[in-house]
Amino acid sequence: MSTNPYESDRLLAEYLLFHYGSPAEILPVTAPAGMRDALDFAVRTTRHFSPGEVERSLDLGCAVGRSTYELSRHSRETIGIDFSQNFVRAAAALAAAPLAYRRLDEAHHHTDLDAKLPQGLPVGSVSFECGDAMDLRPDLGDFDRVHAANLLCRLPDPCRLLARLPHLVRPEGELVLATPCTWLGEFTPPANWPPHSTLEWLVENLGHHFELLDTGEEPFLIRETARKFQWTSSLLSVWKRKNA
Ligand SMILES: C[S@@+](CC[C@H](N)C(=O)[O-])C[C@H]1O[C@@H](n2cnc3c(N)ncnc32)[C@H](O)[C@@H]1O
Known about the structure:
Layout: H1 9-20, H2 23-26, H3 33-37, H4 41-44, E1 54-60, H5 66-71, E2 75-82, H6 85-93, E3 99-106, E4 109-115, E5 125-130, E6 143-149, H7 158-168, E7 169-179, H8 198-206, E8 210-225, E9 228-241
Parallel strand pairs: 1-2, 1-6, 2-5, 6-7
Antiparallel strand pairs: 3-4, 7-9, 8-9
The structure holds S-adenosylmethionine (SAM).
């Protein structure tokens, strides 16, 4: 059995709900406004790219694929890559048909739900593949848009991805990173955590090749049970690849 939590059916169901659930499926009846504001994270992060149509987009750590499909609205070709085979299989299957899953409510109580793409998606060509963001295949090519949400602090050695990014993003292309900065020893050895603030560390590692266009916060909400939710704020940064 795999020890990767992202291969588990429990996290698969949590992420299908997180990416594709309706407000009524996710929120408790008593939800305060702040919980509602944290919905649709996988859609919101993709809206930080400049408007317009592009040729190629890449979603790293795509999980069950909602951001990948959203990127396809304005991209002729879109690739989603994730380390979890279970997530990648689900993301790809959604292009053909809704996917049934069981939302955990409590103990042995579940609710049967269907995850489905919004009508009309995908728009361009979309594909999903298993891959390691720290060791991407050399022939992946380069992209007009690269999106990596809540991935960096799940990598054992995030600097390996940061070093590859100048080669993945085309000159004048854009990069959107989101990270909740939840650095944990179980994913990233402390020696590989940012030595100071995550944003300063990103500027140190990316500043030579990228211009920092914007920063912000994007909250997100993951429902674990009917009464337990993770509310987290992700540090968002938007970068433009320099020409040189
Ligand atoms: C916290 S989830 C975020 C998923 C999605 N981007 C989102 O914002 O909902 C982290 C994702 O990164 C994936 N992941 C972890 N290590 C990875 C690696 N080395 N390469 C690619 N994906 C990885 C996990 O399988 C998981 O889907």
